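Researcher: Structure for this, please.
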Amino acid sequence: MDKRCIAKEYLGETGFSYTLSLINGKYKMTILYTLMEFSVVRFNEMKKYIGEISYKTLSSTLKELEADQLVHREEYPQIPPKVEYSLTERGKSLIPVLDFLCEWGENNRL
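Model: Predicted structure, token format:
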């Protein structure tokens, strides 16, 4: 078996790098976890659940996740406005990864 040579490889071309580009960010994994746990969540509910996140950061992070097709935004035409967020099928495909992270955390908590 040939040994891989780091001089011939580039991290940016790996699946790991691509995945990280989608979920990297201070709150992206937290938002994905929230939607995994509660399925459909309104903006203010998520803000309250996460706590320390600002409205601006939550809004921009949700927009990024939506642009990457991990989160679906459903807006209802009513007053006051009602907006709900949920995972897309693509976002749901991350659930096994999130579940494993949760399990690892429970098993390795100090």
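Researcher: Any notable elements?
Model: The mean pLDDT is 93. The helical segments are 15-23, 28-38, 43-50, 55-67, 89-92, 95-108.
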